[in-house]
Structures are given as C-alpha cells and as structure tokens.
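Lecture 7 notes: from sequence to structure.

We start with a single chain of 110 residues. Read the sequence below before looking at the structure.
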Amino acid sequence: KMHSEAADRFLKSFQWFAHPQAAFKAAEMFHRCQRSAEALKLLRDTLAVNPRWVEGHLLAAQIYFDLGQLTSAQNEWQLVLKLEPRNEEALRKLRSTWDLRIDPSELDPA
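Now the structure, written as tokens:
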C-alpha cells in the first residue's frame, strides 16, 4: 500500500512538472506494487518525448524482463546500447537473456 501511495504521488509530481526523474520514480513504484502496465505506459509516454533517456529504457527493459517479455526487454537493452555502446548494465542483461534462450540440447557436445 505504501508503494502504491508513493507511486501515485510521484505520478502527480510528474503531471505537475514533467521531468524524466519523476517519471522514473513513479514507474519504479508502480512496478513494485504490481502495477507494471501503468509503469510501462508512463515510461513509454516519457520516452516518446525523451527517446535518448537511457535510465528510462533500462527500467522499461527490467520491467519487461520481470514480466517474462524477453523480446521487449532485449529491444530496450539494444536501444540503450545504440545510445551508450559501453553501457555495462545493458550488456550484462542482454547477455543473460541470450543465455536464457539457449537450449542446451542444441549445443554441440564436441
């Protein structure tokens, strides 16, 4: 309940002063209290205006990953790498999703 109230307050502050950091905090709180659809909508809306906002792409990717939407998560991490080719978090997370998609039975035993 506390996270939900915090998310609503961050959202109100974002509506009053549309700054990506307010959107980030609101989206983070929405996700923590199982309101991930609202978090993603807020992030998408903010990213539409601020497409180079790396932190927003990283958070969206994490939320997609947590929801099991690996392709969407990978797309967000790839966008981060286009903006910041050496972003360690995006590189690490993208590698981990590729590892999840490898079927061990398809690997060459030799």
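The CA atoms of residues 24 and 55 lie 8 Å apart. Keep this in mind for problem set 3.
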